[in-house]
Every structure is written in structure tokens, then in C-alpha cells.
């Protein structure tokens, strides 16, 4: 569901997060974006 560029950007954001709380924030935002994309495409975000 993610392009190679999106994967690289996500990994960079996770790597740049200094605390577990920051990493959780990045993951939560990412999850929200992926769920929205799945809804737009009429797909399930769960695999």
C-alpha cells in the first residue's frame, strides 16, 4: 500500500524520533493516514 518513497520517509521519521512517545506519535499518524487511504480506495487497512 506504500510507495518506496513513503516507506523511506516513514523509516526516517521513526529513526529520527528520540523517545518512545515520539515514535508512538509517528506510528499513530501513519496508521491514520493508511486507514484513510484504504477507505478512499474501498479497501480494508487490515491485512
Account of the protein in words:
Helix 1 (about 5-15) runs antiparallel to helix 2 (about 20-40). This protein has 2 helices and no strands. The model has no long low-confidence stretch (mean pLDDT about 90). The radius of gyration is 12 Å and the shape is flat. The chain has helices spanning about 5-15, 20-40. The protein has about 45 residues and is an all-alpha fold.
What proportion of the residues form beta strands (DSSP E)?
under 5%
Structural class: mainly alpha
Topology, number of strands: 0
Low-confidence segments: none
- SSE order, one letter for each helix or strand: HH
Query: What share of residues is helical?
Result: over 70%
Question: What's the multimeric state?
Answer: single chain
Brief descriptors of the model:
single chain; 47 residues; mainly alpha; 2 helices; 0% strand; flat
List the helices and strands and how they pair.
Layout: H1 4-16, H2 20-41
Characterize this entry briefly.
With 47 residues, this protein is mostly helical. Helix content is 74%, strand content 0%.
Amino acid at each position: 500500500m506504500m510507495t518506496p518513497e513513503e516507506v523511506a520517509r516513514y523509516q526516517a521519521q521513526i529513526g529520527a524520533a528520540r523517545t518512545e512517545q515520539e515514535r508512538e506519535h509517528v506510528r499513530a499518524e501513519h496508521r491514520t493516514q493508511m486507514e484513510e487511504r484504504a477507505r478512499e480506495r474501498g479497501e480494508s487497512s487490515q491485512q
